[in-house]
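Bench log, entry 3. Co-assembly request; chain sequences pasted below exactly as received.
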Amino acid sequence: MKRLLGVALGVLTAIGGFLDIGDLVTNSVVGSRFGMTLTWAVVLGVIGICLFAQMAGRVTAVSGRATFEIIRERLGPRTAGANLVASFLINLLTLTAEIGGLALALQLASSVEPRLWVPVAAFAVWVVVWRAKFSVLENVTGLLGLTLLVFTFSVVLLDPDWAHLVHTAAAPQIPASEGAASYFYYAIALFGAAMTPYEVFFFSSGAVEEKWGPKDVSQSRLNVLIGFPLGALLSLSIAAGATLVFLPQQIEVSTLSQVVAPVAEAGGKVALAFVLVGIVAAVFGASLETTLSSGYTIAQFFGWSWGKFRRPSQAPGFHVVMILGLLVGAGVLMTDVDPIRVTEFSVVFSAIALPLTYLPILLVANDREYMGDQVNGRVLNGFALVFLVLIVVASVAAIPLMVATGAGA
Amino acid sequence: MSPRVRPRPRVPDELPELPPHLRPAGRVLDARLHLLDRQILDVEDVPVTTLDDLHVSYADGDDDVTSGDRPAFVDQVLTGPVLVTRVFGGRPPASRLVRIPWSDVVDVGVAVRLGVRGEGLDATWVQRWLRDRVIGRIPGGRHDPE
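Structure output for the full assembly:
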């Protein structure tokens, strides 16, 4: 059981990263418009995040230094500052969307207007960040988030033509009804969502919270290799459900209630109850992940005391940043913006943040002063370099494609 | 004349004669690589600040070290507003520099360790202010998480 709970950090990181509110909807939209033809983007994304999260976890376990300390140390204040601004804005946009997503999920369950739920949701996130131990937060949200596996079961229950699904995933073709630009825009959105920088900030800082040492490198690897592929499986299941239910009828998904429709069709009310619990847990987990990441990045850049293993009074700057982040997020939502549209803008900031986050991790993972004899092997470096090129290509192409397609419309 | 010399490699027009001990037996620290922007931890491993800049002076306290004719020493670690000027250029007035004496430093590794507690240092005043005025006043702020 202890070994099982030991992967909770990876599971929570991945659920928060792959199944935040923006991804839940994006995966469903992709399924309803492109079928399974974008599976390759999710697979590439999960391989990339596994490579770099594992590296970041190993660096932290061996040297005790979290990812943003390393970014500051390797890139200097100017470039690291640019990364900080971009990463912080991604975080803030995602956090805003998550709180909005929580309100939408609670509305699905209660029929109470989402704006009334926003302050409640933001306050609940703050109370957990303020008072709960890190281990409680990761175990509870990680375990409850596993109920999202009902998405996978419902795909099985819908009894699809497996050969056709696998064929469209393995030999992808751009659907005739869609343009190439939209197709690649969504490919980058899926790849970028899988590799969002806050996942490595959260994962490496979580390793410090859990007091991982050099002995826990295998633990870190296990976390990555179980957590992230699980996240990818869930997002592909959501896409598959939407492919089966919406693609034949040419319905484009635009709301959260449509996201859960395939589950309701396959498993009825019981499955729907499970999926709602799962969505609330996953979105709550993502809110915690982004709130904490905003505190982690700022505190690590300036060298302040941080961490949930300390009392709030021993990490005051860290907690002030998180409180301000939650206030701004809740404030933005009160203006009645669509929370799901909010995450789409974070793609713009990914262009700066993605390469400037993963390059320093790769540099330090090869530095013997930090890593001793646990530096990267040649094969790992080879793959990491290939992915670094992919990351740069994706981040450069993101903005032009976003403009050209009107954010995928 | 700058009282602080940026440890930035300069390429002179004519290469000077190489110093006699190119590879000394002791450990050589490159200020840019091993010191700048490293995390500073206090004696109890609590983060204090990031090493934002260094102050260099001669043994007699003269900090105009641009002549370079005598050995100069790192005597202070700088933080505070100096970070802003490192990003945007310029130099804060000497009165605005937040200093930690180099004599407090006990170890230089992947983090710079101090032999004193961070609590009493000028470098942590913002954190202390936030603790006393904001965080400490919210219920539960001074208790361990549960």
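The interface with chain B takes residues 63-65, 69, 72-73, 76-78, 80-81, 130-134, 136, 299-306, 308-309, 311-314, 316-317, 319-320, 369-370 of chain A (CB under 8 Å). Residues 2-405 of chain A form a domain with the Amino acid/polyamine transporter I fold (CATH 1.20.1740.10).
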